[in-house]
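YM 10:42: Flagellar biosynthetic protein FlhB sequence, as discussed on the call
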Amino acid sequence: MAESESGQDKTEDPTEKRKKDAREKGEIARSKELNTVTVTLAGAGALLAFGGGLAQTLMELMRTNFTLSREVLIDERSMGIFLMASGKIALLATQPVLLVLLIAAIIGPVSLGGFLFSSSSLAPKFSRMNPLSGIKRMFSVNALSELLKALAKFFMILIVALAVLSADRDDLLAIANEPLEQAIIHSVQVVGWSALWMAAGLLIIAAVDVPIQLWQAHKKLLMTKQEVRDEYKDSEGKPEVKQRIRQLQREASQRRMMAAIPEADVIITNPTHYAVALKYDPEKGSAPLLLAKGADFIALKIREIASEHKIQVLESPALARSIYYSTELEEEIPAGLYLAVAQVLAYVYQIRQYRAGKGKPPEPLKDLPIPPDLRRDS
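YM 10:58: structure's back
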């Protein structure tokens, strides 16, 4: 079981942040055996596919360069011209094979861990120049596993090579009796199939190495419980900082709420424990909006601000509690309270008319209709 420097067991799976940081540093699972198998198989396949044409092109190139005329031999400029022409022909002939090898060299590493370019992995690490660290790596578990893999590859290739040579013995002996051009093409085919079978033998090594590399990469990223807690604090913020932020947010919200009270049409109270401030805009045609609400000390402040701005204050304990618990700030009241609030607003309108000398004093409000599901007794 892995242990950290502090002695705690690394038993927790890595977090997404830990994985992201490791990937940015280039610390992901890679398998050299998978890369080797991919390139070797691709090279053998390319040799089988393009080997015949490549052999013919190279034979023609050799024939041309070994059958030179007397005029060419005595011309000092001919050597450079023939060299450039021969290089161009050889490059074009080997281009398909080289292109297949290039693609395989890209696909091999990308197939495990995906594409990654990390500048941090290119940075020099002076710790690797320490002789003691080098000796420690030479006798580490990782070095032992690399040695065992190398021995396994050697014996695997040896066994497959002996089997292939034994199976191709007749073909190899027949090459000696074939014409030169046919023998060269036949040799390329034998070499291609031999390489393909030996590369296929390495698939066993790669099939074992890939899960090991994935397991080692995962093991390296394991975390202790303390590391998980510390990372959570760093990403989410320390509890005291979060508490302070929430406090500042509440204070800012209360300041906005108190500043909106002068715009209210009516304040409904409990009368002492709760207070809610409502505003209704008939031009918008929407339901009444809750501008402010509070209990105890905040309710007292709401009533004080209402008194300063001469806003009508009505006592309706049941309605005040229902609005307080069912409606959030700057939201419309529930549909179940439309009728009760409409009666309150109508009452406030009648009071305004009466004070302006345009009507009779309104009758006192009767019991307001509040649905059972919205009623709060305390």
